[in-house]
Amino acid sequence: MADQGLRVTGLTKAYKGGVQALAGVDLAVQPGLYGLLGPNGAGKSTLMRTLATLQQPDGGSVALDGIDVLADPDHLRQRLGYLPQQIGSYPGISGRNLLDRFAWLKGRTDKQERQREVAALLERVNLEQDGHRAVATYSGGMLRRFGIAIALIGAPRLLIVDEPTAGLDPAERNRFHRVLAEIGSDAVVLLSTHIVEDVENLCTRLSILNRGQIVAEGTPEALKADLEGQIWEMEVPRHQPIPVEALHASATPHGTRVILKGTQQEGYAPRAPRLEDVYHHALNQSRAGSTEQAVE
Amino acid sequence: MSSPRNGHSRLSFFCGEALYEIKMGLTSLVVPLVIVVLSAYMLLIFLNADYMRAMGAVDIYRNSAHLTYLMASGQSLWLYFGWAWLFAQVIVRDQNAQLQEVVLASPIPLHLTLSARFVGALAVAVVMGAAVFLGFAAAPILVTLGALPPEAVGPMPVAAFGWSILAFTLPNALGTGALFVCAAIWTRSTAGPFSAAAGLALVWMLAMIVLRGGEVDVTAASVLDPSGYSEAERQSMLWTPVEKKSAVIALTDLWVYNRLLWTGLPLVLFGWVLIRLRREQLAVAGKASVDDDERIDVPHPTENESAPLPVLTKPGWVRTTMLEAVWQFKLVTSSFGMRLALGMLLLSGALGAWVNYVGHIDGPLVPTPQGLLPFITEFFYLIIVFMVVGFVGVLMRRDDRLGYAEWVDSSYAPLAVRLVAQCLAALALIALLCVVPALSSLLVTAASAPASLDYGFPFTFLFLTLFPALAEVGIVAVIAHALFRHAGTAYVTSILVAFIAIINHEVSAVEYPPAQIAMPTHAHPSQLAGWGPWLPMVLTMGGLKIALVMVGVAASWLAWRRGSALTVAERWATARSRLLGPAGLLAASSIVAVFVFAHVLNSRLIVEGDFQTQAQAIAEDIEWEKTWWQQAAPFQLQGGRVSITLEPAEQHGTAEWLLQGLQAEQLHGTLPHGISLQTATIANRGKQQVKRDGDHFVVHTPGCKTGCNLTLRLNIEPQGWPVETAPWIHSSGVWLRAENILPRLGHDPRRIVRSLGDRANHGLSDNPPPMPALATLTPLQGVAPAGEWHWTIQGPDGQSIGAEGETNGLLDFAYVWMPDGPIADIREGRTYIVSGDRTAQLALFAQEITAQSACITESFGQSPDIKAVVQTPRDLGDMNLHNTILWAPEDVAWEAAGSGLGGWQRQFNLAQAMARQVILAQLNLRAEHGAQWLLEGVSGWAALRCVEYSAGLEAGIALRKLHADRLIETFAESDVPISTTAAAYADWLTHYATLALDNWAAADPARSPASMLHGLAERGEQTLIAALQNNLGEQTANILLAAPRAGDIRVQRSAEKLDIAASRWSWDGVGWQPIDTPTRVLLRAGKDSLWVELGAQGHTPGSGLLTDTGALFERTLDDNQL
User: Closest Cα partner for B219 from B235, B231, B227?
Assistant: First the structure.
């Protein structure tokens, strides 16, 4: 079963002007939820679009269940569910009708099956009461749910979701998490997001991407375990300087919560490592590595 | 963007915002595209001599001033769409960048911002409109490259550029821009401005085609035409060639009203909209709704149904394609814009057809489907072309929305499924747009002539002729959207291509039918012959167009983007890889199909047919003049016999023409298309030497100086397909005239090329060569000079007329054979061969013939014997009398309902045909100087008198006005120098000679048509002009036969007095020059008349028509009536 799942090897992609969006990405994703974290400009969207066959990589390979999908993109498209980062309005048509249309574009040509699937998906994303409404009248959250329904057409083997819960209220977000978890029981779900908490809660494995490269990879637990005993925190009152060596800092009602990595310093309390700390640590490591390379 | 509250003045803010709008406009791909394509197209126009002819720019500079006015205003039609996009950006640019809330929340004055952006967009719009002048400015390059002679390009008309911009481009952009911004504000999208542009195009169409083209009301057209082109054309029509080089468009009352309507009113509207505009109106997204019928009632899944769905395995892509095509079609047709457009189209089509066809200037007409459909196609073509481009674009860009493009691109469905489905939907949409004109024609026919209702013909006609052309337009739009990622660029490109197609359609810039991309196939099936004669050509043309559409589909398939952020190199690589797949196969097979169809058309139209471009025809005539004109040889005949055998099913036949008493050392002749001269034999002397050069031949008859009998054996094989005229022989019938089968003997001066430009281009002197001896010339009508002629025509079984006949005059005859169908009705001793639905018109037709025949007898002392009247298919010439058969084509003689101007015009045509026959029978005219003037002028004048006698002064005035209008048009369109009337063979001669003789004769009741012919038959060796000088007096004849003269009587009324003034002009070679004015004019009221002195009148002298009795035509008859 080594061939099961998604395997990305040495994927590279450069844009006009020399921007290296992907600089040799290697991923091995087994069925289940897989998180992809990274700052803006890290190459996440390029990786997602490439995996969704929307872009051609300059080099490397992508295989789904052992099939080279760069050579046979239709193999992937048949098994792909994709939720883009942004979804706009679509004028003059109801949600149900549009979903029906994407179902036949996915290959669901049997009318009975298609109608059953459309109804089930609308129910799954809590839009069964609004299916007859024009997509153009949907709110941002409804559009997001509608997009999720489109991505789930045909029970995809590989589901790529880019910021899936942005714009959803907590109830809808939880509902979507359950949907993802359900799909992840036998499919590969690649979840790209800025919300570290989502990855921490849902994903069995994750990668952190920076400057087109994977800078950390593993299970949340293993990644956190690497930082055990090295993370410290303190709430710095407002108007006091934040130490330059801070791993990251976040606002609190009375000041700023500063997180440090390394040895304990005065006023700092030990803290159980979180995925957020892992993320920032990986990015810092990556930046430090780049600086060293530049110095060399 | 800067805020005026942050240290900037409102003025600097306004300027900054306007400059930003200018920068954004100029840096879009649309503007450079327009500039490059339009400039290049202008250069192509300058190179196209036929186009320049159509624009009235012959024998003057091709970059003359008058053309700048026409182009500056005329191009507005397509610029509306470019401007619609440009002005829409004022509102939608922020929206597209999802910045509208940020912008609207900032402390900027909204009205000032939008006004500044409007001004910026206006500046860019003027730049786009001025692009046409770049082509003018670049015209000298064509001389440098040797593509045009130096005299074809004049100095750059800089003043005309500036004036064109001020008079047309700027006010057009200002007014339409205001409308487009208002539409963008209302819809918060480009849909509103594009709909407004379509509405403007519709109004333009109504003004130009209905009001102006239909000659319903030229004044109203000048006011209503939003582009101002109608007024520019109206003024330029009156300019002489010299004036065209430097004339300035006058800001007439009509221009002012037009601008008030299309610039003033939109600006007021814009101001009102701006004042009422609130920020939240722009911040809220456009409303969207879905009709109830779109709500698909899908049951909730039951427990069983909730079971996991089967995995997608092997989808049926054909079924998917059909599902997708139907979905796309339903979506585009369910939009409000489309429904509104279809409704307006149906209504305007029905109204347009009613006003412009039933109530035509040549009408009222009986709306038969065969007559109505070509008109309605012409009427609808322009607007449908733009609709096709617009709605196909909407269809192709449907998924061009955030997220959805990525979904469809990453969907399992192959690219071909989506592309083919979109193309199928586009074709279905085009078919729907073809159905609308068909329905309009049915509505009009059902309302006005239910007996002519034919439910199938309109649909067949439009699907065979219009649909393939529109499919070509549609595929151009598909290719544009496949190539360009940016929607605006694709829209503008496809609209630009549509504009070029329309221009080509309007001025026939492309003559070879297979090369007439996007133009409807020319076919005029008739009630008599049906589709039969046209069908093979129409189907092959349709096949070619559909094959080209398939090439376009393949090209789009190769070029289509699947995915995002693709580089040119990646797209090129993808296209190459697709070339090896089904897309390449489709491209290859459709290219092969194009070649096959093109080859068949080339064979049937050019190799076997008689198609020639105008340039080719001119070149051939020039060569003919160079080779043969000097070799003209005299010939005389006593008569002879013609024996013709026809096999219509094979479009084949033979003819044997015995020329008796031929006196000639060599006999020249010109063969009609499809006829070949096999042998020329003299009895007892055997075959004679024949030399052939194209359609010209010469038989050397050295022994015939004193007389011999020569037999010409001819082979009849008119196998090719028709281009402009209907075929005269087909299995469904034969409608032949002598000129179709027999060579015209002698040299025909009408073949001499008279255009100075054409002569210079082919190395000929400006002046046409001198006329050879009278005996060398061809007869003025018919194929051989007067003699004792006898003919027999042997056809297959069936109903025929004219199979045998004889004459003692010019050889001219007609023959009609039809296996079935026509009705033979005998009335007052004449046989009428007509289709069944024309029998109701026979009584009136017979009355008209009797009345006009009686009048011609009164005028000339005799009238011709008309034994039969035959209805012929459409496009088979004019109404004329061929020996004893009145040739009455369906489109000329049978469309008029019989009342009004249409009825009077038919009576005029009838009377003129009879008068011509009388003149020719008396005079045996050959094509010498003055002969055409005499024949057309005297017959037209006699016909005018006859209609006035039988139908009254009102009819006479209406016909005089009609001829005057057409004379002015033909003068303006003439591509040859206007010569003396004696030496003229141009279209204007028949109108001018008719009107001039009519005016001149009004002065003296003794001047009658018969008196004009007095003594001419006995003139012997005297030239016709000398004989006319003897007959009329040298001075009178010289005036009548000199260059054209014009007159204008003006009547000014006030409460106290009536002031009558008159002016006269004479053509001096380059323009109208004033000459002596008359001292009195004639007030005509039927046969009574009264002289009226010019100047103030104490009282109104009576009622009637004031006429200047000089030999001239009256320019404006409207103000001549008392």
Answer: B231
* Overall average pLDDT of the A119-139 stretch: 90
Q: What is the dihedral of CA B304, B308, B309, B311, to 10 degrees?
A: -150
Write the residue in B296, B309, B320 that is nearest to A105 by C-beta.
B320
Closest CA to A196 of A75, A277, A110, A90: A277
- Partners of B312 on chain A (C-beta within 8 Å) are 78, 106-108, 154
Q: Which residues contact B343 (CB under 8 A, 6 or more apart)?
A: none
Q: How far is CA B1040 from CA A100, B215, B236, in A?
A: 81, 30, 28
Weakest-pLDDT range from A276-280, B69-73, B303-307:
B303-307
Segment B487-500 shows an average pLDDT of 83
Q: Kindly list the distances between the CA atom of residue A66 and the CA atoms of A3, A6, A55, A70, B561, in Å, as whole numbers in the listed order.
A: 5, 8, 20, 12, 28
How many angstroms separate the CA atoms of B31 and B19, rounded? Answer: 16
Q: How far is CA B589 from CA A156, B537, B542, B593, B1101, in A?
A: 38, 22, 17, 6, 79
By the 10 Å C-beta count (0-12 exposed, 13-18 middle, 19+ buried), B1033 is classed as: exposed
**Residue B291: per-residue pLDDT:** 44
The H or E element spanning position B614 is helix B614-628
Pull the structure tokens for residue B714: 């001819």
User: B640 in helix, strand or coil?
Assistant: strand
Considering only CA atoms, which of B264, B101, B94, B76 is closest in space to residue B184?
Answer: B94
Q: Output Rg (C-alpha) for chain A, integer angstroms.
A: 21
Please state the pTM of the whole predicted model: 0.80
Q: Report how far apart, in Å, the C-alpha atoms of B855 and of each of B866, B938, B951, B1009 are.
A: 15, 14, 12, 11
Whether B1015 contacts chain A with CB within 8 A: no
Residue B769 identity: P
Tell whether the model's pLDDT for residue B54 goes beyond 70. no
Q: Is some CB atom of chain A closer than 8 A to the CB atom of B414?
A: yes
A 40-59 residues with CB below 8 A of B? 49, 52-56
The answer to whether B694 and B677 have CB atoms below 8 angstroms apart is no
Q: Region B900-910: what's the mean pLDDT? A: 91
Query: B698: which strand partners?
Result: B668, B691
Best probe of the B interface among A45, A46, A48, A54, by most B CBs < 10 A, is A54
Q: What is the pLDDT of residues A214-251, one digit of tens each?
A: 999 999 999 999 999 999 999 999 888 888 889 999 99
**Cβ neighbours for B37, distance < 8 A, ≥ 6 positions apart:** B496
Mapped onto helix, strand or coil, the DSSP state of residue B656 is strand
Q: Does B570 have pLDDT greater than 70?
A: yes
B residues 332-351 closer than 8 Å to A (CB): 334-335
Taking each helix axis from N to C terminus, what angle separates A140-151 and A95-105, rounded to the nearest 10 degrees? 30
Q: Do B403 and A56 touch (CB under 8 A)?
A: no
Three-state secondary structure call for residue A177? helix
Q: How far is B425 from chain A (nearest CA, A)?
A: 15
Least confident of B70-74, B597-601, B698-702: B70-74
Residue whose entry in the numeric block shows the structure tokens 């014997």: B865
Amino acid occupying residue A159: L
Asked whether the beta carbons of residue B300 and residue A115 sit closer than 8 angstroms, the reply is: no
Q: Over 90: is that where the pLDDT of B209 sits?
A: no
**What residues contact residue A241 under an 8 Å CB cut-off, 6+ apart?**
none
Q: Let me know: does B806 contact B659? Beta carbons within 8 Å.
A: no
With an 8 Å Cβ cutoff, are B410 and A53 in contact?
yes
Q: How many CB atoms lie within 10 A of CB A210?
A: 24
Residue B293 has pLDDT above 70, yes or no: no
**Residues in a beta bridge with B744:** B670
Beta bridge partners of B872: B889
| CB of A82 less than 8 A from some CB of B | yes
